[in-house]
Amino acid sequence: MKQTFTISPSIIFLICLLPFSVFSKKNLQLNLNEVKLTAIDGDADAQFELAGLYAGGEGVKQNLTEAVKCYRKAAEQGHDGAQFKLGLSYQNGKGVPQSDTEAYIWLDISAENGASLNGRGRAGELADEIRKNLTSIEVEEAKEITKLRQQKISQRVKENYTRIINELNEEGWEINMKIKDDGACFARAFRPVKPVSNTAQASASNWRSAFKSLKRLCNEWPVKESEEAEETREFNIQGD
After folding, report:
1. pLDDT band per the 50, 70, 90 thresholds, residue 28
2. Where does the pLDDT of residue 222 fall: very low under 50, low under 70, confident under 90, or very high at 90 and above?
3. Which ranges of 93-135 would DSSP assign to H, the alpha helix?
4. Helix (H, G, I), strand (E, B) or coil at 186
5. What percent of the chain stands above pLDDT 70?
6. Distance separating alpha carbons of residues 229 and 99, to the nearest angstrom
7. What is the pLDDT of residues 109-122, one digit of tens each?
8. Are 65 and 74 in contact (CB under 8 A)?
9. Sign of torsion, CA 220 221 223 226?
10. Cβ neighbours of residue 47 closer than 8 Å, sequence gap 6 or more
11. How many DSSP H helices and E strands does the chain contain?
12. Within a 10 A sphere around the Cβ of 141, how many other Cβ atoms?
């Protein structure tokens, strides 16, 4: 007697999906390794991305403590998104002991990071809400801590963009920077090469983002350009 077997559509679907699932996991692992290496190198954007992976358990086991460590490293380099996430971590006690004072400090720092262009935003709203729960003495102490941290962060940001300027100078770029009337941080690079000169410019809510973009735009220029390729590369961003 001949026997017949019926395979359900759901089983067929899973069999077809398996190779794509394996491929996806492999790509995720490769991306994770790349992000880790870049984060170890000190890149604030990579540190922020790695923190998000740890926080969400994407490609790695969820580890809120490691997430906070990565957020802190990026925050100390002026990454406003990381400063915001670090403030939320303290507010909710995730990955660190709950602390209204630390939450207020980091959210206030994030709110002021680019506030001249974008305003204080959601970080400012949360900081103002938390402030209501602090005593006048706690608020004054927090302000002093905030001031000291902002000074250290500003120094780190300056060191980082000065390094970028030096690297671009070595490649023949001349750099100009200024604060625009609307509060934006504007950086422009010019390289007098033949047959045409190269220019690139970036405008952002803070110097960290502006110079990060400027460096990327300058790297997109080949060593030599044809006359048909003459153009100005411009990139505008509103924060991290």
Report:
1. low
2. confident
3. 100-112, 115-118, 121-131
4. strand
5. 80
6. 54
7. 999 998 877 789 99
8. no
9. positive
10. 39, 70, 71, 73, 74, 77, 79, 82
11. 9, 4
12. 14
CA dihedral 85, 90, 91, 94 (to 10 degrees): 80
For the record, the structure tokens of 44 come out as 């604030």
Which residue type, as a one-letter code, is found at position 94? Answer: K
What burial class does residue 224 get, using C-beta atoms within 10 Å of its C-beta: 0-12 exposed, 13-18 middle, 19+ buried?
exposed
For residues 153 and 195, the model is more confident at 153
Give the model's pLDDT for residue 118: 79
Segment 227-235 long-range contacts (CB within 8 Å, at least 24 positions apart): 227/195, 227/196, 229/196, 230/196, 230/197, 232/199, 232/200, 232/201, 233/199, 233/200, 233/201, 234/200, 234/201, 234/202, 235/201, 235/202, 235/203
Residue with tokens 């206030």: 108
Give the Å distances, CA to CA, from 48 to 4, 12, 151, 198, 205.
55, 39, 21, 32, 18
Question: In Å, how far are 122, 172, 215, 224, 229 from 195, measured between CA atoms?
Answer: 48, 15, 22, 8, 10
Helical segments of 41-63, H only: 44-56
88-136 pLDDT per residue, tens: 999 999 999 999 999 999 999 999 998 877 789 999 999 999 999 999 9
Q: Residue 161 corresponds to which tokens in the numbers above?
A: 């963009």
